[in-house]
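Appendix B: complex inputs.
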Amino acid sequence: MDCVENRLLTSRRGLLLGGASFAAWAYLPKFARAAGGRDPRLIVVILRGALDGLSTVAPLGDPDYAGLHGSIALTADGAHPAIMLDSFFALHPAMPEFARMYRDKHAAVIHAVATPYRDRSHFDGQDVLESGYAGPGRVQSGWLNRALEALPRGERVSSGLAVGPTTPLVLRGNAPTVGWAPVALPQADDDTAMRLVDLYRHRDPALAAALSQGLQLDKVASGDDMKPKGGNQVAQMRQVARGAAKLMAADDGPRIAALAFDGWDTHANEGGPVGRLAFLLGGLDGALAEFESGLGERWRDTVVVVATEFGRTARINGTDGTDHGTGTIALLAGGAVKGGRVISDWPGLKLANLYEARDLKPTTDLRAVIKGVLQDQFGLSDRVLAETVFPDSASARPMKGLVT
Amino acid sequence: MARDSQAALVALNRFGFGARGGASGDLINAATDPRGFVKAELARPNGVLLEAPGLQSTPQLGQAVFAYQDQVKQAREAAKETAKETAKAAAPAETPPQAPADQKPALRRNLSLNTAATEIAGQMADAKPAEAPARPETMQPNAATPPAAKPAPQPLNVIQKTFRAEALARLQRATLVECGFAERLVVFWSNHFCISASKGELARIWAGAFEREAIRPHVLGRFADMLKAVEQHPAMLFFLDNQQSLGPDSRAGQNRKRGLNENLAREIMELHTLGVGGGYTQDDVTSLARIITGWTFAGRQGQLGTPGSFVFNTNAHQPGPQVLLGKTYEPAGLAQGEAALADIARHPSTANFIATKLVRHFVADDPPPVLVARLRDVFVKTDGDLRALATALVDADEAWKAPLTKMRSPYDFVVASGRLLARVPEDPGAYLNNLNLLGQPLWSPAGPNGFPDTSAAWAAPEGMKLRLDIAAQMGARLGPNIDPLDLLEFAAADAASIETRRTIERAESRQQALALLLMSPEMQRR
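Resulting structure:
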């Protein structure tokens, strides 16, 4: 009986990790518990596969949108009307939670945004998005990790975290991080673990470091509701977010975390108000709601940044989907966001205005958005942001006023 | 001849799947003639092919899926009818959604977007219904009150059965072969040209057949032949959507108002041949997409050919000449795409890309440039002869001198452990389960770029902790019956470090000793 249960749980865990991963910084920033001050939190959500920004926040006011997005275009009416954010932009109907946050001025959209990467390979695009370098090929560390290195390091996070198989590149680097995923596997006992760490210390320091980190965070973290309940991809996204929020809400929990959700590469049968993309957006929306409820009063000081490697073609392809493109959206959510706005220098969707006559032309550098958030949340200087966190990004000045 | 245990570790671990336990004598044989030991497998005629009773061809498997889907549909419709009648008969709102038994197949279908792991999870959970974990949380009454009646276990369907049979055949082969170099090459090429079983039922049932039919026959053959076999295989056409791509000016494109999908064309150039930065443009991607319109497989009706087999559909093919990488390809139907692939296969960027990946896989995360250059030259001179390429790799001194710093992937790790313990798998369940846990679900990478191939990816804190948990479980289960020091002799003999030997000697139990041995650097690095 026990055995069957274990096998069930372990396999579900494997399932869970197929679609999502989470990792966080292992130390508190020193100012985190400054008396009476803010206790800021930042969660970065990476959507791997390239999100169709034009289907998530649709420019209904652009006369060319409906024609380009064709069979999958959102509309203001019909059975599943898009949710108007202002007189021009409308949100996908699968995201009612984000819409509510937006109305409460705790969520914002940045549209026609892109990293400096201008080709269309997912893997290079994700490298640029997460490494923070201006071009691909740099995968040793991510911008969020380098931002952490620039913060004063406080005490080690002591609340328990268990561990999931991969750390997103954005959080990889010298600053120590930890991961978490819903647990189930019967664990090796401490004695065996310590003997192995000792052997590694003598023979294989890299493995010693990796295993020690893995072990340290394996200890607590599982209230009953953190056991995997399994479920479809949407439920998995919610579940990872719920667990992450619970950890981050703790007084000694991590303040900064990154998650990745897979599956946004909608080449075929992307769907409009309902369908494949709608399903995924519903999962993302649920995850944001979980962050909000799980973080409780900490939500007030939280910013969630949702970003993707690039956008998709403005015109749908021959299979009711979209191919790799350029400009897309970024989303901000959280009590600390100065929200209720779509921030965009809208380039227009006329053929002549499209990037290479096919993609939404980026008019905002994603790095400017992220730098703005990092500056407002953690007080990082222009220089550190332009040289260390996002090297060679002086031209993309931190966007002002994203955070209250 | 002098015995060189260190070279034996290179032969067995870098090139192969590690030494087998029991009376194999692998380590001694490898230590006596390391290069000969590795190369022996390349000389065996048909040694890379995999045939096992019950493994079927791609068309047969495709037809099995079509038949299964028809059955499910019929069952669902029958269930709907029954439900209607029941609803008429029963008073409404008496039993709130306690999911009547006949509703289950429908529920199951709704969740078909689940990842590959779902299916595996369902299988692993033998006595448990697959629906239980897959049901949306909101429908779960309450964690404290388990559902009163547990549904009976569901027999595996043909897709799950096939996947497991294919997995078992592959695992058994990997466990039984002498060195494992040829099988490691299969895994390498299979990952290079990966599909993902999580794409859908056809991909899941075809995953093993794809490897047997498109990869294995060419692992010691020509790259161009493998490329053609891969891009014309129904599994790849399905995985990267090409069966949906229609030439905009083709008859089908005009009639159905649908058109190009450039997914496969892009990945052919980016991931299969030229590599990013390999000298192609967006226009080339679009051109190649047009050139290979019509490359599809026959569907369940069999209008185009035997259901589940590759066909060229003239009606979907974009008419006219196409310019690709500066060369014009005149309209020639299927031959237009075959000519384009043949040219891409011998492009200098392809030679460089393949040589780099091969050296990175077998030798070091940062591939020595001299060795890459040598393999690239071999690729060019032999027009992509993969046997010559593999031989050149084994002949290279760099491959023997480089320290064993690569990390075994989860697949390498579970296979090497099974070999050392001399256990021929009879059921793939535990292997599949562990691979899911460790982030390398069999034939199911997250994207078309396959699983990562660097030590950093597999030596992550989380991954190491999970490996240890798995090793501890193996130790607990198998430790009582083995002598860990004997196993260390089989695995590394005098190439084992003194610290590893001591750690194993001083372990508090055989169980613990086995866990530590499986986790030792000698077993983790290659």
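The two ends of chain B are 24 Å apart (CA to CA).
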